[in-house]
Design a protein that fits this description.
Strand content: under 5%
Number of strands: 0
Distance between the termini: 141 Å
Structural class: mainly alpha
């Protein structure tokens, strides 16, 4: 902040006070002298040339003082006015700068709010995408598990089927053997063996 005109009001007031005191002192002294000259010991004395001279002397002194002090007074008033104007201009400039900064801060705040909304939207979008990806991966994994379970079931079923067929085949062989043993006697067995040997030898 500029200090233009700072201290001048005090100097100006001091100068005016001294000048006023001086003029008042001169005026009172002139009046008292005029009264003392005109009024003796209780009697009244008519206005004389000396009284006129004193008043004219005082008037000339006042006029001379006004003439001599007119320029410094005008300069003091002018500098004070300039100082006040400079202070007002400085305050106006500071006000404009503060308003600009406030507008900038409001703009930045608005941009921050927009960025925050955008960040929240991005997080929501990423969350939804992650959710869809997880659901898709879970569905794919479930399909793979189902396919693996089907293959395992089919394999187990095939193994059980083969085992059952083997058991049925073995049981059938045993039953056929029993049937053959029951139907064929020892003589029949000997005859079949003999016939087989004849075929082989022949």
């Amino acid at each position: 902040m500029k200090n233009s005109g700072f201290g001048r009001p005090y100097r100006f007031r001091k100068f005016i006070a001294v000048l006023s005191s001086l003029l008042l002192l001169l005026f009172v002294s002139s009046i008292s002298v005029a009264l003392a000259a005109s009024g003796g010991e209780g009697g009244s004395k008519p206005w004389e040339w000396e009284d006129t001279y004193r008043v004219m002397n005082f008037a000339v002194l006042v006029i001379a003082l006004v003439f001599l002090l007119r320029k410094p007074l005008a300069q003091a008033l002018s500098s004070r006015i300039k100082g006040i104007k400079a202070q007002l201009d400085d305050l106006e400039a500071r006000k404009d700068e503060a308003e600009k900064k406030l507008a900038e801060y409001n703009e930045k705040l608005s941009q921050l709010e927009k960025e925050a909304e955008k960040i929240v939207e991005d997080y929501i979008k990423q969350g939804n995408e992650a959710k869809q990806r997880i659901l898709k991966e879970a569905a794919s994994s479930a399909e793979k598990l189902k396919a693996q379970a089907r293959r395992n079931i089919d394999h187990e079923f095939e193994q059980a089927k083969l085992k059952l067929q083997a058991e049925i085949f073995e049981s059938s062989l045993k039953k056929a053997e029993e049937i053959i043993k029951n139907k064929f006697s020892d003589d029949d067995q000997d005859r079949i063996v003999d016939e087989y040997l004849k075929k082989v030898v022949a």
